[in-house]
Amino acid sequence: MENRYLISLSSFGITFSLLLVMVLLALEPMLGSAAKPPAIFVLGDSTVDVGTNSYLQGSQIRADFPHYGIDFPHSRPTGRFSNGLNGADLLARLLGYNSSPRPFFSLGTPLESYLRKHAFRGVSFASAGSGLLYLTNSELIVVPLSEQIKQFATLQGILTDVRGSEATQAMLQKSLFCISIGSNDLFGYVASNSTIPSQEFISILMQEYETHIKALYNLGARKFGIISVPPLGCCPKIRLSEEKGNCSKALNDLAQDFYLALDALLYNITSEIQDLKYSLGNAYLMTITVINNPQYFHIKNVDTACCGFGKLNAEHGCNATANLCSNRRDYLFWDQYHPTQAAANLAANTLYAGPPLYVSPINFAQLVQL
Ligand SMILES: *[C@@H]1O[C@H](CO)[C@@H](O)[C@H](O)[C@H]1NC(C)=O
Ligand SMILES: *[C@@H]1O[C@H](CO)[C@@H](O)[C@H](O)[C@H]1NC(C)=O
Ligand SMILES: *[C@@H]1O[C@H](CO)[C@@H](O)[C@H](O)[C@H]1NC(C)=O
Ligand SMILES: *[C@@H]1O[C@H](CO)[C@@H](O)[C@H](O)[C@H]1NC(C)=O
């Protein structure tokens, strides 16, 4: 009895929020920027990388060749793991910018001369393949989150030299620190057949996350827009090795546990540090809602990669000779692992203005207004 009540209540909640998300989609052109943050700093993995890995000599995780970028202006591959814009670009647009801030490596050296010559609107440190753990994908050459934070520390020091300490602190306090990471650590855990129990592994990841957030706080960050991990088990590449192309329950369970642990961690951190503010986006729930109700979101295919080879178009990665789907707007997945621009747009709109079921305790629009 009690259980049934709970189930119908929660499915009511989801239906209700689905309606809300649909309303938001209809309102999309009206979502203006309520309060443009002075700068955006982006950290994380391929979900938000805008070209970092193209600068990394020897990196094996890159997207600087066709068909990547086919829907970007001039069909230019930019290193984004997308047919067009990615989540960082689309969020930045909602926040009043034209696109994501540019990669740290693209600023050139010395950094000081760049900062003296150009208007500053933030930097992206995100590196595809990276994780919370230093060793995640290190053999493929990526910038792990701890190194991304060291790069931010360098930048913060130079900004302080150029603009003074007070102005830099004031700017950082109002800036948005957007972090999207964790998927590669979980993929790595499953691929390694680790004997560490999953709850223990997730608590190791949370200790890392806590260290990284506190390091950023100590460097002046106050507003954190954090994106949890999507249903990793539903990526075309993972579906390939499941019966009937289903989602992998093991990976999806990990993704959900990761979200719950992260929610608890952030809640704990803010009870300890009161002037740290955050929004946490539940990428699992957002994406599984689309997978289970694609028609509401005008998506027709939620299991096949748009660009690739073979079964589910996911047996080999996207490149210039890969098969390309005819209507990219109809697909959830662009390649073996990454969303299309259309799917990233749904997520960005929900992070920016969505209800607490998907982004809590407040959404990104509310966070930047604080
Ligand atoms: C993990 O187990 C699978 C299947 O049992 C095997 O194919 C794979 O090589 C193993 N991976 C490692 C890193 O040992
Ligand atoms: C695959 O998914 C279908 C439909 O959701 C479900 O009925 C079936 O039990 C799943 N099969 C396996 C092996 O999990
Ligand atoms: C949150 O804090 C409580 C009480 O100090 C502790 O028991 C719990 O393990 C913490 N959870 C996380 C995820 O840090
Ligand atoms: C694209 O990938 C396929 C499959 O791995 C490979 O056979 C082909 O040579 C690649 N094409 C290019 C242009 O790199």
TrEMBL record:
SUPFAM superfamilies linked to this entry: SGNH hydrolase
Gene Ontology MF: a single term: hydrolase activity
Transmembrane segments: 6-27
Pfam family, one: Lipase_GDSL
Top-level taxon: Eukaryota
Gene Ontology annotations of biological process type: lipid catabolic process
Keyword field: Hydrolase, Lipid degradation, Lipid metabolism, Membrane, Transmembrane, Transmembrane helix
Entries under InterPro entries matching the protein: GDSL (IPR001087), GDSL_Est/Lipase (IPR051058), SGNH_hydro_sf (IPR036514), SGNH_plant_lipase-like (IPR035669)
Keyword presence, Transmembrane: yes
Family membership noted in the UniProt record: Belongs to the 'GDSL' lipolytic enzyme family.
Protein name: GDSL esterase/lipase
